[in-house]
Design brief:
The chain is mainly α and about 170 residues long. It has helices at about 15-20, 60-75, 75-80, 90-105, 110-120, 130-135, 140-150; strands at about 25-30, 45-50, 50-55, 150-155, 155. The chain has one domain (about 10-155). The chain has a 3-stranded mixed sheet, with helices on one face. Strands 4-5 form a two-stranded antiparallel sheet. A hairpin with a 2-residue loop joins strand 2 and strand 3 (about 50-55). Helix 4 (about 90-105) packs across helix 7.
Length: about 170
């Protein structure tokens, strides 16, 4: 049997709240089975409206971090009008995936190795067949994008939003 992906119910809520707070993001919890406002994919997948990430107990952590990283990586104009569809181009999407892997280390129960496993389990697709191979062998463009936008420095997140500080 495949190991299920890590969900909101599986982690320390203080750690994830503290991480999101560094970016000016708010975590809004909804009851099990509730329709999540701002969810692009539906079901348990995280929703994003403005600076609020909507989750329920079965929301995967990879989804929470992916939507949060969209907010972090988008420009201020898109951030101001954000509702459900984060938009962006392929380069930004790759940067979002790379950043979510780095930020996974800020959640004790997750870490980047588990993030890579969960990304594969959910069905993220990469040219080399796995999130780990992409991250280690094929993500130079994503890292270059994050460095150029000053979202990563020295291999770690800067906890800044694209085009500004942590609270745009």
């Amino acid at each position: 049997m495949e190991k299920p992906v890590l969900t909101i119910a599986d982690i320390d809520q203080e750690a994830v709240t503290a991480l999101l707070d560094r970016y000016g993001l708010t975590l809004q919890h909804h009851p099990a089975g509730a329709r999540l406002p701002g969810s692009f994919w539906g079901d348990a997948e995280a929703g994003l409206i403005g600076n609020t990430v909507h989750v329920r107990p079965d929301t995967p952590i990879h989804s929470l971090l992916h939507e949060s990283c969209h907010y972090i990586c988008m420009d201020a104009e898109r951030r101001r009008n954000l509702h459900t569809d984060a938009g962006g181009d392929t380069d930004e999407e790759n940067a979002v995936c790379y950043l979510q892997i780095l930020l996974a280390d800020d959640i004790p129960e997750m870490g980047h190795a588990r993030m890579l496993e969960d990304m594969d389990a959910w069905g993220y697709s990469f040219r080399l067949g796995s999130a780990a191979r992409w991250f280690e062998e094929d993500a130079e463009d994503a890292l270059a994008w994050l460095l150029r936008e000053k979202l990563v420095e020295g291999g770690r997140p800067t906890y800044r939003l694209r085009g500004g500080d942590s609270h745009d």
